[in-house]
Amino acid sequence: MKEINVERITEALKEACGTIAVDYQPDILAALKQGAEKETKERSQTAMQMLLENARIASADRIPICQDTGMAIVWLRVGQEVHFTGGSLQEAIQRGISEGYLENSLRASMVDDPLYQRKNTKNNTPAVIHMEIVEGDQVFLELMAKGFGSENKSAVKMLTPADGEKGVIDFVLDTVKKAGPNACPPFIIGVGIGGSFDSVTELSKHALMRPLSQSNPDPRYASLEAELLRQINDLHIGPMGFHGNTTALKVMIEEAPTHIAGLPAAVNMCCHACRHWAGIID
Q1: What does the pLDDT look like over 146-164, one tens digit per residue?
Q2: Percent of residues in the chain assigned helix, strand, coil, to nearest 5
Q3: How wide is the angle at C-alpha 81 spanned by C-alphas 127 and 14, nearest 5°?
Q4: Where are the alpha helices (DSSP H) in the chain?
Q5: H or E element, residue 5
Q6: Res. 26 pLDDT band, cuts 50 70 90
Q7: What pTM value is reported for the model?
């Protein structure tokens, strides 16, 4: 049995909150630079250069990439041989987010009631937590800071098996068209296929955690990712909506078994920053 003090979870998340708020992942920064080289019109070229300059300033001056510093989403895959010590794991996670946002002077964006009073909790908690028990004696920890300019443009649709691949493509393209410039393109787009009404949305969001260099391991879904990316870029929404060639940097699909009568699909829109972090606690 491996003992892990929950304070290590707190410290890891606290540090990660500060890092992802100001630093792009290297693969995303590289993709932005490649996208900038593909732009042929002055306005879209200027937009891409502004995004790259914003990234440079944020990292150099340690100030947030965006004013919306995001809602914290945490994934834990906990080895079944792990025994947590030092208190409540749930409280440790929330404390890590709270301290990470407060100590790094990041905007607190969470309200305690969604419909009526909507009072700001002032420390960006509670985080959304997804947890899974796996084999082993390690904790795989992931964090996403999800802004709502893009989150508000996400969608879920209960397709039928008869809709097939075309139905999925049409749904994804329709979602991107409706998002337009409002979700801060160029996008990184997570697509969930299968599961149930609730789980397919989580699939689409977790797809965004994958490195941009990786495609779906199933060649059929990898081919669908590539086709969706081609058709999305053919929309020419472009960087920040200036009708360029780079509407999306990547489309990433996660799939799961589903019911014989269903074909759930979800699209999680994400802006070009796609702030995320992953680590292992052992």
Answers
A1: 999 999 999 999 999 999 9
A2: 45, 25, 30
A3: 30
A4: 6-22, 26-38, 42-61, 89-103, 148-151, 164-179, 199-206, 219-233
A5: strand 2-5
A6: very high
A7: 0.95
